[in-house]
Design brief:
Elements: H1 2-11, H2 16-33, H3 57-74
Length: 80
Amino acid sequence: MLNLRHTLLQGIGFPIESEEQILDDAQDFVIHQIPTLFESTKMVAEAPEIELSELSTTIKLDLGRWMRQQVASKTEIVEL
């Protein structure tokens, strides 16, 4: 689905690279806000200031998906 979206946006000349950079910056921002969740993730020296409420819906969805993956990777399943 994301590849289709990227293909369509590139077809109309939308700069996908800038969207990817914004997502990278948002991830760095979140890593700095919740460092204990991202202990094994390489932290950049200084996180950019990001206003999460101003991000596009697509970036917010991608960021949420990435955060869920991070939490899931740290979660241990306990059977009762």
